[in-house]
Amino acid sequence: MAGSTSIARRASYPAQLVAVAGHALAQLVRAPSHSRRAAAARKLARHSLWLSAVGAALIIVLMLAFDRTEIQLMPARGTPALWPIRIFTDFGKDENVLSVLGLALLIVAIVAAGMHGTRRALLLGFGTRLQYLFLSVALSVFVTEILKYLIGRGRPFVGGKADPFNFIPLEGTGAYSSLPSGHAVTAFALAFAVSALWPRLRVFMFTYAIVILLTRLVLLAHHPSDVTAGALVGMVGAMAVRYWFAARRLGFAIQADGTIVPLPGRLKRVARGASAP
Question: Rg of the chain over CA atoms, in angstroms?
Fold first, then answer.
């Protein structure tokens, strides 16, 4: 969300709200302007390829050597004692996470439209960061839905036996949408995105993501290779969105070697480059 103190103070509140929302969209599609974006793009490509290669190798190993054993060790699907895990796993559901982030963005826009000057700039700077979180999860989930449809892997015990190689590509039903795990995608995209903005939260956020991953295994919703693939898709998706924001000087800066770092949240910085939700 790019700085909006230029929005006329005397405009009506509805006009202010429209202007804030318009800025939110315009800043995301404007041409990239950062002089170091090429270095950042090369670094993103290297890291994405490395993660994908390692992740693909791990997924194959898990399919061949561990998936069948792991799902046979889990409690039966629907076990009553697992109700706390069924509640907790919903904290990684894409609809829930995106709804919370979307609501937060809406609140920022509504409140910021009634503010001016530094207070508006500060709030809009926070709105930029919320945009990054929302789009990191949304893009990753979108890619996941395509992959689920194309791959068509059966969930554990679909078909009546522990068969990790039960695939019906393009089948398109919930029973054959196991790979990758949508919950793992959401949790790891969110964990990476939050950690990219606020590194001190890294341990907490990745602990949350791992716990969500484990709930999917215990509930027999996925194989180990499914959640591993989900973690990979979520992190690469959040990395790609981070590059998009950094190339437009939104929330992130690019160092000389192409490393992307979060912009400091100091008052002067936010007041200079705040953006709307």
Answer: 21
pLDDT for res 45: 96
Q: What is the per-residue pLDDT across 82-114, written as a single tens digit (0 to 9) for each?
A: 999 999 999 999 999 999 999 999 999 999 888
In sign, the C-alpha dihedral spanning 51, 56, 58, 59 is: positive
Contact status, residue 209 vs residue 156, Cβ threshold 8 Å: no
DSSP type of residue 229: H
In the numeric block, the tokens 């100091």 are attached to 266
* Cβ partners under 8 Å of residue 246, min gap 6: 34, 37, 40, 252, 253, 254, 260
Amino acid at 200: R
Burial class (CB in 10 A: 0-12, 13-18, 19+), 182: buried
Closest CA to 23 of 145, 149, 153, 113: 113
Residue the block writes with tokens 């996470």: 97
How far apart, in Å, are the Cα atoms of 49 and each of 4, 59, 112, 169, 182?
A: 38, 15, 40, 25, 21
